[in-house]
Write a structure and sequence with these properties.
By secondary structure, the protein is α/β, with parallel strands linked by helices. It contains 15 helices and 18 strands. α2 packs antiparallel against α6.
């Protein structure tokens, strides 16, 4: 890794050149580089956390002055329990995954001695723009090296000291590895994002990680393909047959496990027949832990009659805007899904699905139910990257999916969707091997016929 203040054009061109060498680097060399990076970061732990503490001090002042949100401040903290350990373990997990490159995913015999193969390969050069996420450097470096991609990283000013400390440790590791130094670059020059977004001749994919404003700005400012999501507006729908204790556990984890995360639940939809059987227990547990509940009229009325006065007085009225808001804080919007009494409950399910498809950001949405048929209808009908049954929305994570780590969560509908790990950073090429055949040999009354026989892939 190199800390660079070169021009955007020079940065992009050197990354493109380095990507060609990295793409053909043997798997053992890429894995050895990850081992060395892990060791270097481990040895530099004290200096990195000291640098992160300095960033946190400055960010805390900015947050008090209203110049920085609390959600950004929380994401900046590398000393949060488990975050440092997860970052390091993610590097080893990625290293130990199967090599994603050079895999034949399709093979076909076009004719005698004429074979078609589809083979996985790197995308090329990644541009990652991120805010207040110091662990991103290690995550991206690991995934990029393992998948054979070069990466250009541009971080936010909030975590400058952390970025420099982590980059220094990774750079030291790469100098004794076979990975080209220009394959991973941290850009230190200010005000270069716009220029980098114009380097479509050398940069193949942009991955923004940060605020909605950042993601939208990137998507509207480049011709380079963009992988990412603008919001994490996640829902949980509770069907009338869901297990109550499980609902409580899942809602506590989904909302309060890490409220600033993009996979935190923001809206709870509840079947009208579960208002008295389920909601009081869920609301009580959330209120006890400091979560604000913004309720529609039906759910608030039900809770006012079932909760103790000291809890009921904490309930707030929801507005329509609340159902389109990513709070990123301990706030949960609650909406009742109601159908006429004589209608079957699958009508309620359809209404819940319709609300999610209309208001979700298509990131992660979950259903809590004891019915496999209901869950299947939900998972089939909800148009989101991640659709869960009886589990927390916080499960939407590359590490938890067994991807080692992730470059982000994509709500795109082409190439990669959901938590993006190694597979999402690979594309493919078609290799055709022949024996002198030409296109003119085929077709017409006297031409050869194609065989087009699919061949099993080992």
């Amino acid at each position: 890794m190199s800390l660079t203040d070169s021009s955007p054009a020079q940065i992009a061109k050197s990354a493109s050149i380095a990507s060609r060498s990295l793409a053909i680097l043997p798997s053992v060399d890429r894995n050895n580089a990850l081992t060395t990076i892990h060791q270097s970061l481990l040895q530099a732990k004290e200096s990195i956390l000291d640098a992160n503490a300095k960033d946190l001090d400055l960010a805390s002042i900015a947050a008090k002055d209203g110049q920085l949100s609390q959600s950004v401040l929380k994401r900046l903290d590398l000393g949060r329990p488990g975050k440092w350990e997860d970052m390091l373990q993610g590097i080893l997990d990625v290293r130990d995954l199967e090599d994603p490159l050079g895999k034949v995913t399709l093979k076909s015999l076009l004719d005698d001695d004429l074979t078609l193969e589809r083979i996985t390969c790197p995308i090329g050069v990644l541009l990652i723009i991120f805010e207040a996420r110091p662990e991103v450097i290690a995550n991206i470096a690991a995934l990029a090296i393992k998948s054979g991609n070069a990466a250009i990283l541009k971080g936010g000013k909030e975590s400058t000291a952390s970025f420099h400390a982590i980059s220094s440790a990774i750079s030291s590791a790469l100098t004794i590895s076979a990975v080209p130094n220009a394959a991973i670059q941290l850009v230190t020059t200010r005000d270069v994002i716009a220029s980098l977004l114009e380097c479509n001749d050398h940069i193949d994919l942009v991955i923004p990680r940060g605020s909605n404003e950042l993601v939208r700005y990137v998507k509207s400012s480049t011709r380079i393909p963009v992988l990412g999501h603008a919001d994490g507006l996640c829902h949980i729908y509770i069907h009338l047959d869901a297990e109550v204790e499980s609902c409580v556990r899942i809602l506590l984890d989904s909302k309060l496990g890490y409220p600033a995360a993009c996979n935190s639940v923001e809206t709870l939809l509840i079947h009208h027949k579960a208002l008295t059987t389920h909601l009081p227990y869920i609301a009580s547990a959330l209120l006890e832990r400091g979560c604000s509940l913004r309720c529609d009229g039906v759910s608030k009325s039900s809770l006012l009659s079932s909760l103790p006065t000291e809890k009921a007085t904490l309930l707030q009225d929801a507005t329509e805007d609340d159902y389109d808001t990513e709070f990123l804080s301990p706030i949960l919007a609650i909406k009742t899904v109601t159908a006429p009494v004589d209608d079957p409950s699958d009508v309620v399910l359809s209404l819940a699905i319709a609300h999610i498809n209309a208001h979700s950001s298509h990131h992660t949405d979950a259903i809590l139910t004891s019915s496999a048929a209901v869950a299947k209808q939900f998972q089939t009908s909800v148009d989101s990257a991640c659709v869960f049954w009886n589990t927390s929305t916080r499960m939407a994570d590359g590490m938890r999916f067994g991807f080692g780590t992730e470059v982000g969560i994509s709500t795109n509908k082409i190439h990669a969707r959901g938590p993006v790990g190694l597979e999402g950073l690979c594309i493919y090429k078609y290799a055709v091997s022949g024996n002198g055949q030409v296109a003119a040999d085929y077709g017409g009354s006297n031409g050869r016929e194609w065989r087009h026989e699919r061949v099993a892939v080992d």
